[in-house]
Specification:
- The protein is of the alpha+beta class.
- Helices cover about 30% and strands about 20% of the residues.
- It has 2 domains: about 40 residues, no CATH class; about 45 residues, no CATH class.
- The strands form 2 sheets. The chain has a 4-stranded antiparallel beta sheet, covered by helices on one side. A two-stranded antiparallel sheet has the order 1-2.
- Bound molecules: zinc ion (2 copies).
Length: about 120
């Protein structure tokens, strides 16, 4: 509750509100899901939403409402990932850059392009 992470979905603070079941809606699909029912194998908290959002994107090509992914893409190889929060996205980019010396683009959900180049010259 202390740090404002500029709207990004954080891993740890999602379940602060108590036992309330997380719901996700999608304007494009005109649907709403109760994650407790949709994903009862996943423990309550941020991971359910994350799991659902990634799954939804895989099936439909877009993310549900309120989910703004960080896109990490390597410029040199087909490697890339999408994350629902900044920290794992940056960690992936830095790890990949360090191991491969590739330049990795990290695209913020806001649309600001941010380039991580952790590789040595
Ligand atoms: Zn949808
Ligand atoms: Zn690469």
């Amino acid at each position: 509750m202390s740090a404002d992470r500029s709207g990004a979905v954080t891993d740890d603070s999602v379940s602060d509100g108590g036992p309330e079941a997380p719901t996700v809606s999608c304007a494009r699909c005109d649907r709403e899901w109760d994650l407790d029912r949709e994903l009862d194998a996943v423990p309550p908290g941020g991971h359910a939403i994350e799991q659902f959002a990634l799954d939804h994107e895989r099936h439909t090509g877009h993310y549900p409402d309120g989910v703004r992914p960080w896109t990490v893409r390597c410029r040199r190889c087909p490697d890339g990932e999408r994350f629902l929060s900044e920290r794992p996205a940056r960690r992936w980019a830095q790890t990949h850059a360090r191991h491969t010396r590739h330049t990795v683009d990290v695209e913020a959900p806001t649309g600001d392009d941010d380039v991580v180049t952790a590789a040595d010259e």
